[in-house]
């Protein structure tokens, strides 16, 4: 609740917990707490500036500094309120006036006054979590500046007319301060910018610092350190420029600085006109299930994901339908209770109580037309709880919506160990079939998953000629070359997902040596709701992250029946269950793994910790740099990522001896997925007590667990006749037909998942609706071809 909500806020003067008008009576009945500070706020109308344009809105100054909350930067909007504070005694809500306080004994009056002052002076959650001052222009002195060794090669740079020495580009030119080379800057996500020649020159020579020509003035210039990967200061810049014949005091600015470019991008991302469809004016929508969410500072990824999740019946039934029971059973501090905070957010989104037009501060009479903005919900307490202890989600930085979805599902799993688990709506089993090409014998394994990651085969673009022409024009320095987006058929993406993968270094137990094998992935079960992630974010050959600018004709309906797993085929022989030779020396005292030193070295050179590189090579069986790199990318968030490599059975490893205590939380998490405690214990001991690896292990060793007891529930597949046999080992999954219809998608704008903006589109009663933080509008042309995460629900047959 917020002070300015209808009915105000009731703060318990003993526990300091705040409640809305509809819940304070319930809290009183539960706890017996009677004294509350009742705070109400009424928004003040903002005064127009003297230079107002007359439109009813005071003109906002254009940002001139890449900063938040300081002079020249982006504004942190502060609303002004008139505040009314009084003490209320429940259950009759009897008001205690200032006159009443005066007649009370001194001790009582003093205690009440101190409590009131303490509550009013305390920082609210909103104040503690809001974006504070931030200055993106603060730069550090480069460590290379003081002792930079410049080459005496006779190079002199003219004051104008610069061109890239490789591609003749005339814009975005950077001069290397070591050898005076003039080269173009980085290429941006939309194809503009440069052709990366300055960056490539650094990689070839190691010369670390460059200055952007056209930004040099007597006051300074843009200086970038490739080695430090940041904009930097160079205290000796006049001297370094003079070495190549440039007089800093006579130079004039002719190009936008990097700060000005970033400000322009941030302004574009935040403007409603940019992300509304095709520049049309969209009709605002209000009502139940049409509630906006405030952006708390790069929290659009959270807003988009939670809007979609609360359109799924499983989450509605678990949290919103049971909100009265959840609140009645909430612990003494509900701010730290997962179920309470999720239920509060879900109720706020679905009830419609907060789906009202935001008042126009300049319109005192409310006569103007409703704007797209809503009062909406500010999910500050929810964000603080789900992000607590997480290195990324606890910050105000932009995040990957897919990673947050998995993080939230993981929290739901941990908090639904008993009772219904709404994340089962997305859970499915994947069957992997590996066939040894030499013996033609097969191996089957299953694993659990929640998201289908759909590859993007760029070589299957249908507009290849247009792409090549646009690329040719850019390389020739044609600044008017149009930005062409690759058109990729959805069928090509599905074909790339389902086609067999060639394994070149597969150790076959049938032939007792490495050979070639094929791996085919299929669905062992189909979930009620299917999430598809378009793998737009990838790594180039130099392992630099990049975003693929593609358009994919994602269909409204989907039939995946042909991808149903079939299991062992008639007459098909299975590979013998024989372990490969250990990757360690025969010296039992040392037990040192035999690792490919060249692969370890290559990974270390990329900046990864040595022990993480050793583990990557070990756990991928010395199969090469690509496999090891994929392992690193999949395990970078592991808590033991940089911990020393501990071999199974080594006495120094945690969780490897029978007397070593295992994490009860890890055990409970695995048991909640349908496995017995003994099975969970075995998995954790086999993987050094690391939860993520234990889950992977247990799904790849289902056959080994068949003889062990299985907890109740198991998989929801059909049990054996008469129910005499226990259910098969594995997680509880829902299964059905593989036919789906699209009901929501999340889109991303920007160069990477770490920046930009997210919005979501959700189909409500056959009408597509766009949710852009606090703005909720009817969608005219939903950009279904540009989405990042797609949500499908099963079609009833």
Verbal overview:
The protein is α+β, with helices and mostly antiparallel strands and 797 residues long. It has 22 helices and 29 strands. The strands form seven sheets. Strands 16, 20, 24, 25, 26, 27, 28 and 29 form an eight-stranded mixed beta sheet that branches. Strands 8-13-12-11-9-10 form a six-stranded mixed beta sheet, covered by helices on one side. A five-stranded antiparallel beta sheet has the order 2-1-3-5-6. A hairpin with a 4-residue loop joins strand 5 (81-89) and strand 6 (94-96). Helix 9 (300-309) packs across helix 14 (401-415), helix 18 (610-619) packs across helix 19 and helix 20 (664-672) crosses helix 21 (677-686). The longest helix is centred in the first third of the chain and has 16 residues, at 106-121. Mean pLDDT is 79; it is low at 48-59, 127-136, 265-276, 366-370, 584-592, 649-660 and 706-729. Residues 711-720 have a biased composition (Low complexity). Substrate binds at residues 174, 186-189, 224, 226, 229.
**Distance linking N and C termini:** 43 Å
Q: Largest beta sheet, briefly?
A: 8 strands, mixed
Mean pLDDT equals 79
Let me know the number of strands: 29
Shape: globular
Instruction: Output the structural class.
Output: alpha+beta
Using only CA atoms, what is the Rg? 31 Å
Report the total helices: 22
Spans with pLDDT under 50 lasting ≥5 residues? 48-59, 127-136, 265-276, 366-370, 584-592, 649-660, 706-729
Q: Into which percent range does the helicity of residues fall?
A: 25-40%
Beta content comes to 15-25%
């Amino acid at each position: 609740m917020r002070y300015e909500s209808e009915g105000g806020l009731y703060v318990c003067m003993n526990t300091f917990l705040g409640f809305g008008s509809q819940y304070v009576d319930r809290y009183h009945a539960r706890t017996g707490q009677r004294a509350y500070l009742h705070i109400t706020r009424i928004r003040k109308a903002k005064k127009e500036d003297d230079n107002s344009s007359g439109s009813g809105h005071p003109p906002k100054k254009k940002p001139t500094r890449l900063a938040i909350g300081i002079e020249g930067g982006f504004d942190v909007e502060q609303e002004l309120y008139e505040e009314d504070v009084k003490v209320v005694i429940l259950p009759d809500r009897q008001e205690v006036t200032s006159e009443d306080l005066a007649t009370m004994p001194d001790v009582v009056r003093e205690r009440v006054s101190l409590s009131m002052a303490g509550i009013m002076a305390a920082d609210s959650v909103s104040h503690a979590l809001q974006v504070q001052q931030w200055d993106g222009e603060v730069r550090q002195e480069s460590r290379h500046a003081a002792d930079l060794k410049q080459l005496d090669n006779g190079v002199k740079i003219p004051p104008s007319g610069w061109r890239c020495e490789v591609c003749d580009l005339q814009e975005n030119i950077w001069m290397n301060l070591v050898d005076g080379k003039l080269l173009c800057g980085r290429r941006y996500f939309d194809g503009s910018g440069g052709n990366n020649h300055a960056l490539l020159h650094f990689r070839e020579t190691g010369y670390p610092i460059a200055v952007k020509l056209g930004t040099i003035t007597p006051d300074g210039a843009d200086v970038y350190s490739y080695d430090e990967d940041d904009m930097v200061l160079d205290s000796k810049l006049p001297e370094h420029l003079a070495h190549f014949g440039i007089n800093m005091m006579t130079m004039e600015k002719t190009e936008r600085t990097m700060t000005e470019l970033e400000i322009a991008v941030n302004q574009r991302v935040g403007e409603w006109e940019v992300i509304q469809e095709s520049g049309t004016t969209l009709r605002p929508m209000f009502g139940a299930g049409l509630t906006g969410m405030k952006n708390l500072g790069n929290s659009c990824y959270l807003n988009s994901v939670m809007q979609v999740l609360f359109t799924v019946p499983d989450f509605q039934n678990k949290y919103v339908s049971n909100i009265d029971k959840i609140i009645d059973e909430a612990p003494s501090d509900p701010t730290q209770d997962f179920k309470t905070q999720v239920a509060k957010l879900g109720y706020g989104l679905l009830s419609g109580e907060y789906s009202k037009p935001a008042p126009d501060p300049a319109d005192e009479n409310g006569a103007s037309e409703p704007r797209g903005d809503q009062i909406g919900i500010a999910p500050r307490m929810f964000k603080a709880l789900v992000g607590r202890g997480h290195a990324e989600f606890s910050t105000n930085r932009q995040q990957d919506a897919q990673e947050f979805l998995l993080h939230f599902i993981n929290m739901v799993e941990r908090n639904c160990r008993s009772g219904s688990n709404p994340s089962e709506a997305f859970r499915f089993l994947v069957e992997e079939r590996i066939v040894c090409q030499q013996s033609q014998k097969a191996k089957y394994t299953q694993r659990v998953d929640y998201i289908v990651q759909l590859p993007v085969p760029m070589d299957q673009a249908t507009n290849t000629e247009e792409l090549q022409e646009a690329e040719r024009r850019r390389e020739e320095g044609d600044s008017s070359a149009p930005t062409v987006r690759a058109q990729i058929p959805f069928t090509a993406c599905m074909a790339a997902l389902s086609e067999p993968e060639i394994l070149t270094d597969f150790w076959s137990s049938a032939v007792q040596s490495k050979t070639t094998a094929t791996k085919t992935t299929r669905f062992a079960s189909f979930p009620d709701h299917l999430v598809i992630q378009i793998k737009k974010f990838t790594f180039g050959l130099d392992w630099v992250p990049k975003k693929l600018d593609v358009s994919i004709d994602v269909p409204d309906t989907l039939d995946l029946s042909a991808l149903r797993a079939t299991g062992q085929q008639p007459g098909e022989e299975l590979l013998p269950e024989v372990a490969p030779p250990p990757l360690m020396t025969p010296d039992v005292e040392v037990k040192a793994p035999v690792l490919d030193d060249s692969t370890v070295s290559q990974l270390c050179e990329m900046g990864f910790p040595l022990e993480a590189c050793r583990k990557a090579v070990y756990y991928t069986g010395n199969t090469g740099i690509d496999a090891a790199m994929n392992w690193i990318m999949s395990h970078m968030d592991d808590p033991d990522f940089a911990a020393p490599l501990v071999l199974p059975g080594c006495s120094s490893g945690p969780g490897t001896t029978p007397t070593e205590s295992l994490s009860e939380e890890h055990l409970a998490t695995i048991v909640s997925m349908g496995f017995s405690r003994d099975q969970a214990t075995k998995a954790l001991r086999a993987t050094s007590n690391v939860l993520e690896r234990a889950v992977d292990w247990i799904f790849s060793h289902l056959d080994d667990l068949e003889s062990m007891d299985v907890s109740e529930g198991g998989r929801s597949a059909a049990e054996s006749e008469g129910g005499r046999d226990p259910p098969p080992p594995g997680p509880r999954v829902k299964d059905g037909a593989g036919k789906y219809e699209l009901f929501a998608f999340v889109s991303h704008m920007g160069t990477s998942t770490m920046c930009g903006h997210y919005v979501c589109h959700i189909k409500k009663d056959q009408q597509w609706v766009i949710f852009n933080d606090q703005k909720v509008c009817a969608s005219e042309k939903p950009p279904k071809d540009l989405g990042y995460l797609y949500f499908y629900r099963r079609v009833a047959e």
